[in-house]
Specification:
The complex is a heterodimer of chains A (386) and B (204). By secondary structure, chain A is an alpha/beta fold. Chain A contains 13 helices and 15 strands. The termini of chain A are far apart. Chain B is 29% helix and 21% strand. In chain B, helix 1 runs parallel beside helix 4, helix 1 (32-45) packs across helix 5 (170-180) and helix 4 (154-160) runs antiparallel to helix 5 (170-180). The radius of gyration of chain B is 16 Å and the shape is globular. Classes of the chains: A alpha/beta (386), B alpha/beta (204). The A-B interface holds A 4, 6, 32, 117-118, 138, 168-172, 174-178, 271-272, 274-275, 277-278, 281-282, 285, 355-362, 364-365, 382, 384 and B 1-3, 5, 7-9, 11-16, 37, 40-41, 44, 49-55, 57-59, 77-82, 84.
């Protein structure tokens, strides 16, 4: 029987990870991920987690341990945040190129200095090109459901890419919300034991990560790209199967909210994507035709879905990140998706950096300002004293 | 960390039916964050489908003023921002009134619950708002609810809440307390909630 519990995003992620029955979890604590690791440690103590829990001395080592474990053929999970993710950087590439289906939660936290533990997305956005699939969640229920779904996606033979599930520091990691938890057997049925085609095995020795000449290396890059394209098809299929079995659905690559007859569509990721629903309701009540497309996957990027939106409406993009020297990362990708195929106007806003609160009211102001035609192509919202 | 935009205004949140927003003011160590969590767990038990509890995010120090937030709604809550316009303010430490503007953003029909030995009429703002008072420190001391020698007032405060908010019942509050602290610890805290419920004074 499905039960409803109330807990923080980190404890919910720990619950999901343990219910996926990984063979190995290797992690190093960092604020605001610490309670995720603590949650898993509690399941070690209670005996509910039966895998190997490896305490390592750094995040680089955490990812190395996950790579080793995954290559040995077991389901593998970890979690990190901000500087921890950045310390993993080299090994993130390694996990992806070795085609190891490691699943990791990253709690989106500001990168220092100045020292700041609050949410923004520069940590994971800067890992865009590592080959990892990236999800962005907006509720604790979505965290639970996405962690389980991520194993199914990552371990699919047509994908075999690692998956990073991102959620905002504190806004989700430390906020208690009600979450439906399915039975263990239902989870087991949804993600049966991981059976890799190749694995490190002393009785059947094969080589991993050996030297590879240019022509063949190019092929493995192309294969990653094709697998990421496969993931685009599989993400909606897995979400549909989940919906059928458990009745819950958070969208595919994007989650659309009140986009019918919209003249403007707002695009955002993470917690801002949830808060925006309140704004859309209020704007609709005032007769403004605004909808929301919450971007759930940044990689693979939902290019086709966004092109469809661009054929219907002008787009307003909120980025909780900045690619210094250019603009918000989502803003860039959205425009690239439309290039030469749509003449929709696209407006970009940078908001909520350093953990600055982004309220429904802020989002309404952004939309109204855009509708009134009073915005530049790219603006920093609510920036004071600069 | 948070900011008030010049155009910031209170507006009707239409997406969440029957939304009640609550701000707890306390000092590090008094159990404000736990109180917020237990309150929404009880509210969920009482059939409120959307609930949320969260601290003000950051470094917490014992004794320093801090806030915790709770949202209770009849349906799923999409809000993820802090609470700026509470319906209820709960003050775990009376001395905070001197240093923090606890009435900031309080709705016109808002209510304030204070841990104090005073009566509601003793507070100036009782002319404008509904005020409830409870000697939570006294109740905590009576039941020997101490951590590191400091009275923890969160469970007595929780016992007083059903008197100012009909969306949460005392039996549900007592059930979540018993679930969190098994055995004697839970029983003592349940007694404290009953004492609080029986002795709360209101001006409305």
């Amino acid at each position: 029987m499905t039960v409803m519990i109330i807990d923080t995003g980190n404890y919910i992620a720990a619950k999901a990870a343990v219910m996926a029955r990984p063979g190995v979890v290797a992690a190093y604590p960092i604020t605001p991920q610490t309670t995720l690791v603590e949650g898993i440690a509690n399941y070690v103590k209670s005996g509910e987690f039966k895998g190997e829990y490896i305490c390592v001395e750094s995040e680089h080592s955490a990812m190395c341990a996950c790579i080793g474990a995954s290559a040995a053929g077991v389901r593998t999970f970890t979690g990190t945040s901000s500087h921890g993710l950045l310390l993993m950087h080299e090994m993130l590439h390694w996990a992806a190129l070795a085609r190891l289906p490691v699943v990791m939660c990253n709690i989106n936290r500001v990168v220092g200095p100045g020292w700041n533990i609050w949410p923004d997305e520069n940590d994971s956005i800067s890992q865009r090109d590592t080959g990892w699939i990236q999800f962005y969640c907006s509720s604790n229920q979505e965290i639970f459901d996405t962690v389980i779904q991520a194993f199914k996606l990552a371990e699919n033979e047509k994908v075999l890419l690692p998956v990073m599930i991102n959620y905002n520091a504190f806004i989700l990691s430390h906020t208690s919300m009600p979450v439906y938890i399915p039975e263990q057997k239902e989870v087991d049925d949804f993600i049966p034991k991981y059976k890799p085609k190749w694995k490190l095995d002393v009785n059947n020795p094969i080589t991993f990560g050996n030297i590879i000449l240019p022509a063949d290396y190019e092929k493995i890059r192309k294969d990653m790209q094709s697998s990421s394209e496969n993931a685009k098809k599989l993400i909606p299929e897995i979400a549909k199967e989940w919906k059928k079995k458990f009745g819950r659905y958070h969208g595919d690559l994007i989650e659309k909210y009140k986009c019918e007859n919209a003249e403007y569509i707002l695009l955002a990721m993470g917690a801002i994507g949830a808060e925006s629903k309140v704004s859309i309701d209020n704007l609709r009540k005032e007769g403004l035709k605004v909808g929301l497309a919450r971007v759930r996957t940044f990689r693979p990027f939902p290019q086709e879905e966004i092109l469809k939106l661009g054929k219907q409406a002008d787009l307003i993009v909120i980025d909780r990140n900045i690619s210094v020297g250019f603009e918000g990362a989502l803003f860039s990708e959205v425009k690239a998706s439309l290039y030469d195929k749509s003449d929709a106007k696209v407006y970009g806003f940078i908001a909520g950096l350093g953990g600055k609160d982004v309220t429904y009211n802020d989002i309404e102001i952004i939309c109204k300002k855009t509708i009134k035609g009073k915005v530049k192509d790219c603006e920093w919202y609510g920036l004071e004293g600069v | 960390m948070h900011h008030f935009h010049s155009e910031f205004r209170e507006c009707i949140v239409v997406s969440s039916k029957g939304l009640v927003e609550i701000v707890f003011h306390g000092r590090g160590g008094q159990g404000a964050v736990t109180a917020a969590n237990l309150l929404v767990a009880a509210a969920l038990k009482d059939g409120n489908k959307g609930v949320q509890a969260f601290p003000v995010f950051g470094a917490e120090r014992r004794g320093a003023p801090l806030r915790a937030f709770a949202r209770i709604s009849e349906e799923e809550i999409h809000l993820r921002s802090e609470i700026y316009f509470p319906k209820i303010v709960i003050i775990l430490d009376e001395s905070i009134i001197e240093i923090v503007d606890v009435l900031k953003g309080l709705k016109k029909d808002g209510k304030i619950l204070i841990n104090t030995t005073k009566k509601p009429e003793d507070f100036d703002f009782s002319k404008k708002y509904g005020v409830a008072t409870i000697d939570a420190t006294g109740i905590a001391l009576k039941h020997d609810i101490l951590v590191g020698g400091i009275p923890v007032v969160n469970t007595p405060i929780l016992g007083a809440i059903p008197k100012i908010l009909d969306r949460v019942t005392l039996p549900s509050i007592q059930a979540v307390i018993k679930n969190k602290w098994k055995g004697e610890g839970g029983e003592i805290n349940v007694k404290a909630t009953q004492d609080a419920y029986d002795s709360v004074e209101v001006n409305f």
